[in-house]
């Protein structure tokens, strides 16, 4: 093993230049190591969990991201003012900004991460590809240059091609182009996104691989020349190039391919004299692999590796930063079982996964052996549209892959979040799908076969009956939450028909009331009995035909929110509906007369593509709205004239606020 002289540093206090779940996760390790912790927070994060659990907290001046979490000078100033020894960048924000890493070092502080030079080399994807090619790591065919050159190169490479931001990462700045007619528009859109997110509009193209797997290798490298690989992770289940489910180790991977990936990852890290934790990512097509990129930071999905190896990667990062050599060698890295991670997002699967910022009214995370939840929540909180929509990471470590899969599904179904839409039911569908069970996923699977994962996301008829009876049970006079519930939804007169709206759709069901704890429904010649076994703490157990169902609920604002099998539902009594609500429920999406286009979420207007008196056709993009780091195209629902435009680029709009008015008549 190569060794070199290195200065030993001592770390007594660390400022984490981040927010959310990754800050909480880093603080947990720092506290275990006996190191003092410092949190920074923007004004809207004053009550955030990361700001509450740190030993010391400091408010960042400013209102925007650029003024707060992306303000390198202010972060360093805060660290020095509170006598911190080091800064940990987490992931995202400034974690892969070489200028920030250098500025931290120049200020006399320890940067808990790789050198600025290593970040710079790997941060630009074009330069990283050049280095990989130089040392013999396979690459997918690609090209760089001006837009005109890229158009010509794409003809030579052949469609489809991928357009990528050179400074991109985290699934951002990537688009697939199927034909030349789309390329110019996609090049411009990717450059705009790259400039907005990464401050660098530089892009390149790469030959599109049809059904590749996304396999990545976690490495640790100390300042003494030792580079170790910690098995690999499979991250192929992606939507819009964003990872959703990750696991370790990767299923159905040959030992030869696995060892070749490890060798390539270690070779790259050694070549650039890498220090700290890092991840080398590859695309795997059949028995071939191609270098994709290197992430010079802690990864979102690092917990699955920690669980199968027993190695605390953040702790190793800190020890490496102090100059300590790694305390173990490659032969000591052993495999224990299988771990799967699911990312729980604030987004609405029923509306094409639109971000769902808002207020979390109830947060009940499951618990159990071998279950790990990395989250920024410990109760009610606000989910801001300014940041990534991930709420929590739910990870289970099983003795086998199948055990991990089944247990993770069970825990997801018992993860309760009311107040914002989440992708919980969608995660359950992914984990229950045949491709995942067989370990035969690829990066295009979700985009190409979305029907596989949406068959069971909607509420079934039996579940609707269960919801109706659950609603009746919580309105009977003998229950624990009687007073609180009735204050929210009012008294219910026992009648033989339940007239309800379930998820906005009418539901009318005759039922038999036996006792406050037992009711039944007759369907054709069958009678289904519902018996309340237990109720309390927003949870009830209802027996239906010998099977016990767990139903979570929250009564608020004239309705009851329910969750059954991970699927969120809303139940309202019909008598609460007025003209406005009924009109909204029955709103005809076909343009008649005039139509007001409202913001489907809180966000920032990126671009307005129409002006007054323009003619638009059904499907035409009216504007681009950014929310939670995602660009969303707002389209016309029918042919119309543009009557009024109420917004402009740069405006911040609230959910349901007017943006554009369409009409079928020219003014």
- The domain tally reads 5
Q: Overall pLDDT, averaged?
A: 88
What's the level 1 CATH class of the largest domain?
A: Alpha Beta
With helices defined by DSSP (H or I, 4 residues minimum), what is the helix count?
A: 18
Description:
With 667 residues, this protein is an alpha+beta fold. It folds into 5 domains: 13-112, Rossmann fold (3-Layer(aba) Sandwich), CATH 3.40.50.20; 141-207, Dna Ligase, domain 1 (2-Layer Sandwich), CATH 3.30.1490; 213-453, ATP-grasp fold, B domain (D-amino Acid Aminotransferase, Chain A, domain 1), CATH 3.30.470.20; 461-579, Glycoprotein, Type 4 Pilin (2-Layer Sandwich), CATH 3.30.700.30; 588-663, Beta Barrel (OB fold (Dihydrolipoamide Acetyltransferase, E2P)), CATH 2.40.50.100. The strands form 9 sheets. A 9-stranded antiparallel sheet has the order 25-24-32-31-30-29-28-27-26. β11 and β12 (242-248) form a beta hairpin. It is globular and about 80 Å long. Residues 478-495, 575-579 and 581-593 have low confidence and may be disordered.
């Amino acid at each position: 093993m190569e060794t070199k002289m290195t200065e030993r540093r001592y770390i007594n206090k660390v400022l984490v230049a981040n927010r959310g779940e990754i800050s909480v996760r880093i603080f947990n390790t720092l506290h275990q190591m006996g190191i003092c912790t410092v949190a920074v927070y923007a004004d809207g994060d004053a009550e955030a969990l990361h700001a509450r659990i740190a030993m010391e907290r400091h408010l960042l001046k400013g209102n925007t991201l650029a003024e707060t979490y992306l303000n390198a000078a202010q972060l360093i100033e805060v660290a020095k003012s509170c006598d911190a020894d080091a800064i940990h960048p987490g992931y995202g924000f400034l974690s892969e900004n070489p200028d920030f890493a250098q500025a931290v070092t120049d200020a006399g502080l320890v940067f808990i991460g790789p050198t600025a030079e290593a970040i710079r080399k790997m941060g630009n994807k074009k330069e990283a590809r050049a280095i990989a090619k130089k040392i013999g790591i396979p690459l997918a065919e690609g090209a760089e240059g001006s837009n005109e050159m890229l158009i010509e190169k794409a003809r030579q490479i052949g469609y489809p091609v991928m357009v990528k931001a050179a400074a991109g990462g985290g699934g951002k700045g990537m688009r697939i182009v199927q034909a030349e007619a789309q390329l110019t528009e996609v090049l411009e859109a990717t450059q705009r996104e790259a400039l907005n997110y990464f401050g660098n509009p530089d892009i390149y193209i790469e030959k599109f691989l049809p059904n590749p797997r996304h396999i990545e290798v976690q490495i640790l490298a100390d300042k003494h020349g030792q580079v170790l690989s910690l098995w690999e992770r499979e991250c192929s289940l992606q939507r819009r190039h964003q990872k959703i489910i990750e696991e370790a180790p990767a299923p159905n991977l040959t030992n030869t391919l696995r060892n070749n990936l490890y060798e390539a990852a270690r070779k790259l890290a050694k070549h650039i004299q890498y220090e700290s934790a890092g991840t080398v990512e590859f695309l795997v097509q059949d028995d071939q692999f191609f270098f994709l990129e290197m992430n010079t930071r802690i990864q979102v999905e690092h917990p699955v590796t920690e669980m199968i190896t027993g190695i605390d990667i953040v702790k190793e990062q800190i020890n490496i930063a102090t100059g300590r050599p790694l305390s173990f060698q490659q032969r000591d890295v052993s495999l224990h079982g299988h771990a799967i991670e699911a990312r729980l997002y604030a987004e609405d699967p029923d509306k094409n996964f639109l971000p769902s910022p808002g207020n979390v009214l109830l947060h009940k995370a499951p618990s159990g052996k071998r279950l790990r939840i990395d989250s920024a929540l410990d109760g009610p909180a606000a989910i801001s549209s300014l940041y990534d929509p991930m709420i929590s990471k739910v990870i289970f470590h099983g003795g086998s892959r199948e055990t991990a899969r089944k247990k993770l599904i069970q825990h997801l179904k018992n993860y309760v979040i009311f107040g914002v839409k989440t992708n919980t039911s969608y995660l359950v569908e992914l984990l229950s799908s045949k491709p995942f069970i067989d370990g035969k996923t690829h990066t295009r699977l979700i985009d190409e076969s979305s029907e596989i994962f949406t068959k069971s996301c909607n509420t079934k008829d039996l579940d609707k009956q269960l919801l109706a009876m659950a609603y009746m049970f919580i309105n009977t006079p003998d229950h624990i939450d009687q007073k609180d519930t009735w204050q929210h939804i009012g008294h219910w007169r026992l009648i033989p028909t339940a007239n309800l709206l379930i998820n906005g759709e009418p539901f009318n069901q005759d039922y038999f009331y036996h006792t406050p704890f037992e009711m039944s429904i007759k369907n054709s010649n069958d009678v289904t009995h519902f018996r309340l076994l237990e109720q309390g703490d927003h949870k009830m157990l209802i027996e239906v035909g010998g099977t016990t169902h767990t139903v979570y609920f929250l009564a608020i604002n004239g309705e009851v929110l329910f969750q059954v099998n991970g699927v969120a539902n809303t139940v309202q009594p019909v008598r609460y509906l007025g003209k406005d609500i009924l009109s909204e429920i029955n709103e005809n999406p076909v343009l008649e007369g005039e139509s007001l286009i409202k913001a489907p979420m809180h966000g920032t207007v990126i671009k307005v593509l129409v002006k007054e008196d323009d003619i638009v056709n059904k499907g035409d993009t009216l504007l681009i709205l950014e929310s939670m780091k995602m660009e969303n195209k707002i389209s016309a629902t029918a042919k119309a004239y543009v009557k009024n435009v109420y917004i402009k680029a740069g405006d911040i709009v609230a959910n349901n606020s007017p943006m554009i008015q369409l009409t079928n008549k020219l003014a």
